[in-house]
Each structure stands twice: as structure tokens, then as C-alpha cells.
Specification:
This protein has helices spanning about 1-20, 50-65, 85-90, 125-135, 145-150, 170-185, 200-205, 220-230, 230-250, 350-360, 380-385, and strands spanning about 25-30, 40-45, 45, 70-75, 95-105, 115-120, 195-200, 210-220, 305-315, 330-335, 340-345, 370-375, 375-380. The chain has about 375 residues and is an alpha/beta fold. Helix 2 crosses helix 9, helix 6 packs across helix 9 (about 230-250) and helix 8 (about 220-230) packs across helix 9.
């Protein structure tokens, strides 16, 4: 009896010790745009490459306060990186998210102001394409760009259409992250919200993870340019981005402590709605279906909670049959704006949901993740289990 107790105690210790040692931290790659001879947008003393580097470093310093977050920078000094190098770093590090930070400027609209966050995708909006064209034009400063980006025309960002499919499986999570960034900019830093948008960005298309490109504001606007160039402005923008990343981590990964904002967040709506990407959940009726080992004892959550495994997001509407989803049955879909989200195995049982997630990953959906709804409203996994 004594030996059995010792074995049991030792086993519990090893499990706890092992989970501590091998716990996977949340990896964030921060990418300050431009660098060295590539100045980016510049208006007088307001220079994009310097402002975005300062903001990225501040974001990293804030995130590092959470011991469960690893921060990787594509650059920490004033150096030039090819666009493909930036996402290669993120892919090599197996990052959970890729965040590229930029600032905007326009020639003929000095009053233009506000923040916007982009996810990879096609756009029919002329202004969105123009922003993408300016950001993508940096490849002309690279050696042999015609070879490295064969088939892409910098003057026609829509020529990336064949490459956007690589990012489709990450679109949904990218939109979630972008929305949180814009919400924090609005509430924490009180900036004008120009919305979450889609654009064909070279720097995003090669990242095999949820990715966003942030435009902090317009350096061509004298007031906003002065704000972004100031220490106060950089600190507020950095804190907003850091808080948004932590908000995202809480929803899709383990919980972490929030970083107090410089200003008390206000519960007010964004000034401008997203032009092309609408992140709005429809009410969902809890389902009682489960196809994963249903014979085993269940760990049932509180009434009114529904779990789903999100396996994909696409601009295409697919017939809900197993042959379209690597053999998975019990697939449902939900349309959000122009995107279709696809879910596997709706259940009110968290234990079954976790097993369903493993099934989906074994079927080839390596980026699948759990989502939760409580009384028809989307919530974090942590809130669903309370």
C-alpha cells in the first residue's frame, strides 16, 4: 500500500513537472516595417521606419512581462530586410501570430487620419489596393526581385490572387486579432477607427499563421504625425497593440495577465465599421451532437454552452459533405461578411470537444482550434468553463 502511494505521488509529480518544463509558450513575431535605406512613409521629421521600430520594441517590452509569451523581432535596429525574410523568420520560429507594424501617408488628403488593420485577402476597394501597392513596392529595392517574386507585378497588387489561397485557413483568426487591435486603438488610445480590411500584402501571404498588418495612422496628417512621433503616442499605441495580443491569447491560448492601459478604456463603438470584413457572430442554438468517443463519461459544462472545432475559413461556399473536408462528417458552416467559417463536431461537452479537435488535426487541419458560445454569444474558452 505504501509503495503504491509513493508511485502515485511520484507519477503526479512527474506529470506536473513535465507539463511545466514542456509547456509551449505563446510566440509573437513583431515586424517593424521598412528599415535602413527604405524609409517608408516620411513627412518632415516624421519617418515611418523609425516610428514603427520604436513602437514594436515597446510592444515587445510590454509582452515580455508575461512569462508565457516569447517575443521575436524581425529587426531590432535600423536594418533592411527583404519582405520574404520577414515571414521566413516567423515560419522558422513556428510563431503563433505575425504582427507587421506600419504607418500611412497620402499626398492629396492631409486631413486623412486613423488606424486600420489589414488581413491577407483580395480587395475591390481602390484605396485598399493603393495602400497595398505602396507597401509591396519595397520589393523593388531588393536584388533579383523579379526572380524571387516571379509572377507578381508591384504595380498591380491584385496579381497576388493566386497566392492568397495560402492564407485562407488562417483568415478567421487573423480577423479576430485585427478586430482586437482596432478595438484597443479605439478604446485605449482614443484613435479614429478606420476598420479591419483585406488587402493583397506580400509580407502577409508567406506567413503560415494568423497574421495582420497594422497602419498606426497618417504621417501626412500634421496632428496625427506629431502624435505618432511623440513618446506619449508611441507608448499608447504600443500598449494598445500589446493588450490586443493578450486579448487574442486569452481567447485562443492559455490565460495571461492584462497590461493596464495608460487610459481607462471606454465602452464606445468604433467610428468607422470595417469596410470588407465584418466580425459578427450570429446567435447559435446549442447542439447535442458528438461523434467522438461518446460512450466515455462526459465532463459536461454549464447549460447553454456550445463548443465547436473551427477547421477552416474561406471565401468559398463549400457543400458540407465529408469529401470536401478530408473525410470529416458533422461539419457546419457560418457566413461572416464575405467569409465562410467551417466547424466540426458541435457539442456541449468540453471533453468531447477536445477529442474532436485532435481528430480534426489528425485529418490534416493542423491550425484547427476550439471556439465556444454561451447563450448564443461567442466567448473565450475560459469564460465558457466558468
Amino acid at each position: 500500500m505504501f509503495i503504491n502511494k509513493v508511485r502515485t505521488t511520484l507519477g503526479i509529480f512527474l506529470i506536473c513537472f513535465g507539463s511545466t518544463v514542456y509547456a509551449q509558450n505563446f510566440k509573437v513575431v513583431l515586424d517593424p516595417g521598412h528599415g535602413a535605406h527604405d524609409f517608408g512613409a516620411a513627412r518632415g521629421n516624421y519617418v515611418e521606419k523609425k516610428i514603427v521600430l520604436d513602437v514594436a520594441l515597446k510592444v515587445g517590452d510590454l509582452l515580455k512581462k508575461d512569462k508565457n509569451i516569447d517575443v521575436i523581432y524581425t529587426r531590432k535596429t535600423d536594418v533592411f530586410l527583404e519582405l520574404r525574410e520577414r515571414t521566413q523568420i516567423a515560419n522558422r520560429e513556428k510563431a503563433d501570430i505575425f504582427v507587421s507594424i506600419h504607418a500611412n501617408a497620402v499626398a492629396n488628403a492631409p486631413a486623412a487620419q486613423g488606424t486600420e488593420t489589414y488581413v491577407m485577402g483580395m480587395s475591390k476597394n481602390a484605396s485598399n489596393l493603393e495602400v497595398a501597392k505602396k507597401e509591396n513596392a519595397v520589393i523593388t529595392l531588393e536584388d533579383n526581385y523579379e526572380v524571387n517574386y516571379a509572377g507578381y507585378d508591384p504595380s498591380r497588387p491584385e496579381s497576388l490572387i493566386g497566392l492568397t489561397l495560402m492564407q485562407e485557413q488562417y483568415v478567421s483568426q487573423s480577423i479576430e486579432l485585427a478586430s482586437k487591435v482596432q478595438t484597443r486603438f479605439t478604446n485605449d488610445a482614443e484613435r479614429r477607427n478606420r476598420g479591419v480590411k483585406q488587402g493583397p500584402y506580400l509580407v502577409l501571404h508567406g506567413a503560415f499563421m494568423p497574421s495582420v498588418l497594422i497602419e498606426l495612422g497618417f504621417l501626412s496628417n500634421s496632428e496625427e504625425g506629431a502624435y505618432l512621433n511623440s513618446e506619449e503616442g508611441k507608448n499608447e499605441m504600443a500598449r494598445s497593440i500589446a493588450n490586443a495580443i493578450i486579448d487574442y491569447k486569452k481567447q485562443f491560448h492559455s490565460a495571461s495577465e492584462n497590461i493596464p492601459a495608460n487610459r481607462k478604456p471606454e465602452t464606445r463603438k468604433p467610428d468607422v465599421k470595417a469596410e470588407e470584413v465584418v466580425v459578427k457572430e450570429k446567435p447559435v442554438e446549442p447542439a447535442k451532437t458528438s461523434s467522438v468517443d461518446a460512450s466515455k463519461p462526459a465532463v459536461v459544462t454549464k447549460e447553454g454552452v456550445l463548443f465547436r472545432v473551427q477547421i477552416a475559413a474561406s471565401g468559398k461556399s463549400l457543400e458540407l459533405k465529408p469529401s470536401n473536408f478530408n473525410g470529416l462528417d458533422n461539419v457546419t458552416s457560418l457566413k461572416e461578411g464575405t467569409m465562410y467559417k467551417y466547424f466540426y463536431n458541435e457539442t456541449t461537452d468540453y471533453d468531447h470537444a477536445r477529442k474532436a479537435l485532435e481528430v480534426a488535426k489528425n485529418k490534416g487541419y493542423s491550425s484547427a482550434f476550439l471556439v465556444a458560445y454561451k447563450n448564443g454569444k461567442k466567448v473565450s474558452i475560459q469564460d465558457a468553463l466558468k
